[in-house]
Design brief:
heterotrimer, A mainly alpha, B mainly alpha, C alpha/beta, A: two-stranded antiparallel sheet, about 65% helix, B: two-stranded antiparallel sheet, two-stranded antiparallel sheet, globular
């Protein structure tokens, strides 16, 4: 359905010189020259530059809205009538740029986004910044000031009067602070600034982790005025100490987080291998199944990655645990008493499971979405922030550990498992159904592996090779901690994670891992039964 | 005495079969190309490669089957032998490389190295290299094994630290700074002792040498396992503490076997490299070692010929299936592993016994 | 008893030897891509693409009046197995050409085989250069067709002044970074403004490295990451990048090994605006490309299946080979090699790919920004095709070398100064 009026307008816009327009249009609408319209409509991003420049220099409100939409990726071209339209924030309706008419938008199939490149978006934000700084909407002002600060090169001495004027009018405390900071940065590179102003600037910059702050302070330190130099020197010293502490804490967190991943991937193995003595080479593939469960549930609940993720914790436990139960019944049950042969059988199973995923799903990686609550940073202080997903995974790891520990030590199943582990014959004589216990234990270990897969889906590739990359590390953690001891696995994982992260800054990633492995070998040669030696079926020989 | 002890039926069968097999292959290879039984170089060096894997499997079986030491890192010793040989072959290239540098291998020229690192000294002398092929893995096994066996690391603990060893080596060899060509490894060999490495004569010679090495290693293992020492091996495997209390120095028994086994693996690696034409850190990957252990288990552990059969069978299947069923061959291989474990506890080598029992109406 | 076993094994061995006698009248083409193991993620697609090209050619009536038959093998991401399979394809299956390999090491592994058996390999992946073999046609980009234009873009358009060169520790990143470092220094970038970092294959814990990069980028100077991180390590890398709050607007990443295929395994919303340099993107707006995508999605019966750069390389390689065979009226390697140099076939970006005497092809260089739908938006491209350079002009040891497989030079590493052909590459 083509609106005739609109068609005429398009015609006018394209074929008439820009200033001939304004027929029947509200005053706030501007004159879009045909060049601008063409360049915005073009499928080639490279063609956009000229339009951005001329819109940036146009004073009208609509130019501002248009540029903002362009920057935020809200400007589209309708595929059926080739007209520009701006989508609102929820992408539920769109307003035609030229006619001003609003239409509801159900899906974006009929629309083509007007793309921009990084450098164009940057250009737009510098073109808009002067207007945004004065904009009545505090949010826009806040963004504009933050933008100024993040790119120190953008502010120059000529901006000082503007910033001062803004500071006087500003009421929002946040924005005031950032404006003051921007002024402080300016002052540092201003040769004519008064010493008092400079000392004030140094004090402001002292407590801020801005990118350019250190450089500005270094400049101030070489000032001829003794007071300024001293203040800047003290501020730099303070910054250095804070940075060192922050780096230390950061490394500690990285270590804990790596440790938590190691624990998660090995705790299932601590049950199947550590407690039952099955050399389970298919452990990695059970983890992989857990990750694919997340992917599968996200296909079932499109648009709700958070819900899918939460649901997949029990679901992955069931999928991997069920697979573990089947394996135990079909294969591993026949191999008790021949622990080394479980290696051969489970190796075969791992090959089959890998190829099964390749054949049934895809040989390629699958995209697993991260829900909003799992992404981003959690800011502790201005210089320390922790990544949310890692914090969650750390907590998840502790929860899983607590769960397993509770099962093994507080439930009847756990009691029976420990009894069978210590002495199968006597346990059976006491009436324990050892076949059932074996099946349950193996299912439990496998299920936990599946839960680890849920966590890994948030960190790494979900693909057929997922399991392979964790299996060697998992065995090492379990053995390092001491076979058959859950506390050993917990501390083993944490120690290996922390050691790795504290070594990395000195030796680089590759060497850190090699040193760690060498250290592990030496440690085992000194303490041949790991951190927490305990008796178990596997430890007997 | 010795002859009777060593040459039982299976040994006689094994050595004569292997020798006859090698002779037939060599004969077919040397037939004129038009002949119906002619085998091309490709098949011959492929068979040579299998024999090298058989050597590695044999060395694993010596320590696993007879001493109960499950080494998940034997690929490391194989790789060491291979790299020593590879270094020699790299030096043989001389100025025929890409950058035509007579002194340095291509990858060093590329990394802007000005001279050979010290550990490449002597790698151009063939006798010295032959010594190193045995000495490097042997020494590594000694250095690794001595403290481990002394402090009585055993069972899965030992398995996992051997795995850690080979994993660490893999990461180390991946590093380009190590001076072994990083991930690309050593490749593009031209000649061995001055003779073209792709020539028919060389291919057949290498194949024959591999067969000879396999027979020799088999006999050495046989001699040892049937001697008094061999009985101590079994004692240690079955009741380590008791053997120790009787007065055997268990750690040295284990160490001796471990070192010997590493040397055999090293020879396997050294013969493998010129026949395959490349050595890269992949041989140090834990997965490769596990795969070799699986070969031994599949063939039948504790019988030397079992290991050989396992290695030949698995690698033959791999060659065959990856061409015949490229999309689904892993299903077959995986299923084979599972089925053999379940139904042939003694591996393929136990198949005849199992069949005989079945025929006599006994359940296995 | 075990005698029978031996006999069976022996019989099996002879079987492989005996399979050489195949009498059907087809032209055989080998496909040497890993279908299992770590590289299956990338290489399986190329196998499917080759099958599609061959099927299509057969529908058009085949080649020289014969049908083309694809021989698919699985080298299982195992490098020595690549050499074994290559030899099998050439000597036992007697294929006329092989399309295959992805990693540098797999190419290095098969190279002596192709030279020894006089085979013909089409290699479709961007690579480190420093090589030109008589028996290999390199249809992927060499460093000057990817790395150098990408850095120019970062410096000119994004005004980057500080560079992080992050890569996986193997030969392609090493070479690319070496060339780039020399190039950046020549452009006046200070040594202190370049940070080089190498990680192992499949590296999954990027926390510390990203934190370091963040610190490196916090000096107020515009910083960019040039990533030669390979395959599996990319997903955790980008995830960590997003989680630590590094956006394309603050520190953009320019990747050389991340294409549509890799993106289809990542949630791309946090990555919007990061860059990649290739010679083809699925979003290229040409009719040829649209038809290609349609055919591909129909062939794989998957309307969401993406295309990528190495696929286009195989498309060009296969068409070049078909044209050369038709011109030579023979599938013999020597005849095809003689015919193929100088041939041109259309590429999917609207231009032509010409095979140069150094066995590399001409390619346009495109720079794309990641979009939230997993596609790239092209933000820059070279005005015309760039000829591939086998030996980099920015490396001291290779700047005097050139490759030319036409008479009178006929050499893969010809020294322009001494006028001599180095090494053993001559036949």
């Amino acid at each position: 359905m083509m609106n005739l009026r609109r068609l005429c307008l398009v015609f006018l816009l394209v074929f008439l010189p820009g200033d001939a327009l304004a027929v029947g249009e509200p005053a706030s609408r501007i004159v879009l020259s045909p060049e601008i319209v063409e360049s915005l409509r073009s499928a080639r991003v490279m063609d956009r530059a000229a339009a951005i420049e001329s819109l940036g220099n146009a004073p009208s409100d609509q130019a501002f809205t248009l540029l903002k939409a362009l920057q935020e990726g809200a400007l589209y071209v309708s595929r059926d009538n080739n007209e520009l339209l701006v989508l609102d924030e929820n992408a539920k309706s769109g307003e035609f740029v030229i006619s001003g008419e609003t239409i509801p938008v159900t899906d974006k199939d009929g629309l083509r986004k007007v793309g921009t490149s990084n450098s164009q978006r940057e250009r737009i934000s510098s073109l808009l910044s002067a207007r945004m700084l004065r904009h009545p909407d505090a949010n826009l002002r806040r963004r504009a000031v933050a933008g100024l600060l993040s790119d120190a090169g953008r502010i120059g001495a000529q901006d000082k009067p503007l910033l001062l004027a803004l500071l006087q009018k500003e009421t929002d405390e946040d924005i005031r602070q950032n404006l003051a900071l921007a002024l402080a940065l300016l002052a540092a590179s201003d040769a004519a600034a008064a010493p008092d102003e400079l000392i004030g600037a140094a004090a402001l910059l002292r407590d801020n982790a801005l990118p350019g702050a250190t450089q500005a302070l270094e400049k101030l330190k070489s000032s001829e005025h003794a007071g300024v130099a001293a203040a800047a020197g003290e501020a730099l010293e303070h910054k250095k100490i804070v940075a060192e502490w922050a780096a230390m804490l950061e490394t500690l967190f990285f270590g804990l987080s790596l440790g938590s991943v190691l624990i998660l991937t090995s705790i299932g193995l601590a049950v199947t291998f550590g407690v039952m003595g099955v050399i389970n080479m298919a452990h990695g593939e059970l983890i992989m199944l857990g990750s694919y469960t997340v992917w599968g549930l996200q296909q079932v609940f499109p648009g709700q990655p958070g819900l899918a993720l939460v649901l997949s914790i029990p679901a992955a436990f069931i999928v991997s645990g069920g697979m573990g139960m089947v394996l135990e019944r079909l294969v591993i049950r026949h191999l008790y008493g021949r622990p080394l042969e479980t290696l051969l059988a489970t190796f075969g199973i791992s090959l089959i499971l890998q190829q099964m995923v390749r054949t049934l799903i895809s040989p390629m990686n699958r995209a697993v979405e991260s829900p909003d609550f799992m992404s981003g940073m959690w800011r502790l202080t201005s210089s320390i922030s922790l990544t949310c997903n890692r914090v969650y995974i750390l907590c998840f790891c502790l929860a899983v550990f607590a769960l397993i520990y509770a099962v093994m030590h507080k439930t009847r199943l756990g009691l029976e498992v420990r009894a069978v582990t210590q002495n199968r014959a006597i346990a059976r004589a006491m009436g324990v159904n050892s076949a059932r216990v074996d099946a349950m234990t193996f299912a439990l270990g496998s299920g936990v592996a599946g839960m680890a897969g849920v966590a890994l889906s948030q960190l790494t590739n979900v693909g057929p090779n997922l399991g392979q990359s964790y299996i060697v590390d998992s065995f090492m953690v379990v053995v390092f901690g001491g076979v058959g001891n859950l506390w050993g696995t917990l501390s083993g994982g944490l120690i290996l994670g922390l050691a790795n992260k504290f070594l990395e800054p000195f030796s680089g990633t590759m060497l850190a891992k090699i040193i760690l492995l060498a250290g592990l070998i030496l440690f085992m040669q000194a303490r041949p039964r790991g951190l927490f030696p305990e008796r178990g079926r596997a430890a007997e020989n | 005495m010795l002859r009777e002890r060593v040459f039982n039926t299976s040994t006689r069968l094994f050595t004569s079969c292997t020798a006859a097999f090698a002779a037939v292959i060599a004969f077919c290879a040397l037939m004129p190309e038009a002949s119906a039984v002619h085998l091309n170089n490709h098949v011959v060096s492929l068979l040579g490669k299998y024999l090298c894997f058989a050597l590695l499997a044999l060395s694993i079986d010596l320590v696993w089957g007879y001493l109960g030491i499950l080494s998940l890192g034997h690929g490391a010793f194989f790789g060491m032998g291979g790299y020593v040989m590879g270094m020699y072959l790299m030096r043989e290239i001389g100025n025929r490389g890409m950058y035509a540098n007579a002194e340095l291998p291509d990858f060093m020229v590329f990394l802007n190295w000005k001279e050979l690192p010290w550990y490449w000294t002597g790698s151009d002398s063939f006798p010295f290299v032959c010594l190193l092929i045995v000495a490097v893995p042997g020494l590594a096994a000694f250095v690794f094994g001595l403290p481990a066996f002394r402090s009585r690391v055993s069972g899965v603990y030992l398995s996992i630290i051997t795995q850690a060893m080979t994993f660490a080596l893999m990461l180390a060899f991946f590093r380009n700074e190590m001076g072994f060509g990083g991930n690309n490894g050593l490749t593009d060999f031209k000649s061995l002792l001055g003779a073209d490495i792709h020539s028919q004569g060389m291919v057949v010679t290498l194949f024959a040498l591999s067969a000879l090495a396999l027979i020799m290693a088999y006999l050495v293992c046989r001699v040892i396992t049937t001697s008094r020492l061999g009985r101590v091996f079994i004692a240690v495997r079955d009741a380590e503490s008791r053997a120790r209390f009787i007065g055997y120095r268990v750690e040295y028994v284990k160490l001796a076997a471990f070192v010997l086994s590493a040397c055999i693996a090293g020879i396997g690696g050294a013969l493998y490299v010129p026949q395959v034409g490349i050595i890269n850190p992949g041989v140090f990957s834990p997965l490769f070692s596990v795969e070799m252990v699986v070969c031994v288990a599949l063939g039948g552990r504790g019988r030397l010929y079992g290991a050989v059969i396992g290695a030949l069978a698995v690698n033959f299947i791999k060659t065959w299936f990856t061409t015949a069923f490229p999309d689904i061959w892993l299903f077959f291989l995986g299923a084979l592993f599972v089925l053999v474990t379940l139904f042939l506890p003694e591996g393929l080598a136990g198949l005849p016994t199992a069949l005989r029992r079945r025929l006599q109406g006994k359940t296995p | 008893m075990s005698k029978k076993l031996w006999a069976a094994v022996l019989l099996g061995f002879l079987m492989i030897g005996g399979r050489a006698i195949a009498a059907e009248d087809t032209i055989k083409v080998g496909i040497l891509h890993s279908l299992s193991g770590t590289m299956a993620i990338s290489e399986t697609t190329l196998k499917d693409a080759m099958l599609m090209f061959i099927e299509e050619q057969n529908k058009k009536g085949g080649l020289l009046g014969k049908k083309i038959e694809a021989v698919v093998v699985d080298p299982a991401s195992d490098w020595p197995l690549f050499a074994e399979k290559a030899r099998d394809l050439l000597t036992t299956q007697k294929v006329s050409a092989v399309f295959g390999c992805w990693t540098s090491v797999s190419r290095k592994s098969v190279l002596p085989v192709f030279e020894g058996e006089n085979g013909l390999l089409f290699y479709p992946v961007q690579y480190e250069g420093e090589e030109s073999s008589r028996n290999v046609i390199y249809t992927g980009a060499s460093p000057n067709q990817q790395a150098i234009p990408a850095v120019d873009y970062l410096m000119n358009d994004l005004k980057a002044q500080r560079f992080v060169l992050a890569g996986t520790d193997y030969v392609f990143p090493r070479t690319a970074n070496k060339i780039l470092e020399a190039y950046l220094l020549a452009k006046g970038v200070a040594k202190a403004d370049i940070m080089v970092n190498y990680t192992p294959f499949g590296h999954s814990d990027w926390q510390s490295i990203i934190a370091d990069i963040k610190k490196f980028g916090a000096t107020g100077k515009k910083t960019a990451i040039i990533s030669t991180i390979n395959g599996d390590a990319n997903v955790p890398f980008y995830k960590e990048l997003a989680n630590q709050g590094i956006k394309a607007s603050s520190i953009p990443v320019m990747a050389f090994s991340v294409g549509e295929e890799e993106l289809s395994g990542i949630d791309t919303k946090p990555l919007v605006g990061h860059l990649a340099a290739w010679n083809y993107f699925e979003s290229v707006d040409t009719q040829a490309n649209k038809d290609f995508i349609k055919k591909w999605q129909a062939f794989t019966k998957n309307p969401k299946r993406v295309t990528n750069d190495p696929m286009e390389a195989h498309y060009i390689g296969f068409n070049l080979w078909v044209q050369a065979v038709e011109k030579a009226k023979s599938t013999k390697v020597d005849d095809v090699l003689k015919a193929i140099v100088g041939l041109s076939v259309p590429n999917l970006t609207g231009g032509k790919a010409t095979l140069l005497p150094n066995h590399h092809i001409t390619k346009p260089v495109l720079i794309g920004e990641i979009q939230d739908d997993g596609q790239f938006q092209i933000v820059w491209q070279t005005p015309k095709e760039v000829p591939g350079d086998a030996w980099s002009d920015y490396l001291p040891e290779s700047k005097d070398l050139e490759a030319d497989w036409t008479p009178p030079i006929n050499c893969g590493n010809y020294n322009k100064v001494t006028k001599k052909c180095g090494g053993a590459a001559t036949k």
